[in-house]
Design brief:
Layout lengths: L1 E5 L4 H12 L3 E6 L13 E5 L5 H7 L5 E4 L8 H11 L4 E7 L6 H4 L4 H7 L2 H14 L3 E5 L2 E2 L8 E4 L12 E2 H13 L7 E5 L2
Parallel strand pairs: 1-2, 1-4, 2-3, 4-5, 5-6, 6-10, 7-9
Antiparallel strand pairs: 8-10
């Protein structure tokens, strides 16, 4: 497949890029500074500069037959919605977006434990929810991951919809490698188009 990884220099983006190449896909990896994409060069890998604040620049590197996998994160409100709009305007085949469990569409399923996110995210919460909803409305898939951790891909990992979501648990972390694997599974065999999916470690 022709895949595009947005925010490919972050830890989750690097995991997505590395695993996608391992699965035999062609990858365009986008980052503001491509030199920070610490994945070995490969004939199937193209590292390109890109900033979501430059929608024209994003459109220039996202091919219409590609599936975009976004690991975009930010400490500033507004960036996620700007990024979602830029990616969708480029017209890719599909978009698979990384969000946070306990926000927006998954807040009710997560329960009382997710209230801590309101304090942690502050004014970024509304931006995150709007970005997710924009992707969902366009038929994309949004992965709501719990607290992210380092470590290998879980051998017992699974992906569920909101109807099977467990309560939010600060101790139930999921590795970035596990999240990346779940997102790539969705790229290869769509199961949650226009819906929220949860990547679980077990």
């Amino acid at each position: 497949m022709n895949l595009t990884v947005l925010a490919a220099s972050g830890q989750t983006g690097i995991a997505l890029t590395r695993q996608a190449l391992r699965r035999g896909h062609t990858v365009t990896a986008i980052a503001r500074d491509p030199e920070r994409i610490t994945v070995p060069d490969s004939p199937n890998l193209r590292k390109v500069p890109g900033d979501v604040n430059d929608a024209a620049g994003i459109a220039a590197v996202i091919e219409r037959d590609s599936v975009v996998l976004s690991a975009l994160g930010t400490d500033r409100a507004g960036i996620l919605l700007t990024g979602a709009r830029a990616v969708l305007a480029a017209g890719p085949q599909r978009v698979i977006w990384l969000g946070a469990y306990g926000t927006g569409a998954s807040a009710e399923a997560a329960g009382e434990g997710a209230r801590v996110l309101v304090k942690v995210l502050g004014d970024r919460l509304a931006d995150k929810v709007e970005a997710d909803n924009t992707v969902l409305a366009a038929g994309g898939t949004v992965f709501h991951a719990g607290l992210l951790a380092d470590g290998p891909e879980s051998p017992r990992r699974r992906t569920v919809g909101l109807e099977a979501a467990p309560p939010f648990d600060l101790g139930a972390k999921v590795s970035r490698e596990t999240v990346a694997a779940a997102m790539l599974d969705e790229a290869e065999v769509p199961g949650f188009a226009g819906a929220v999916a949860l990547p679980l470690a077990e």
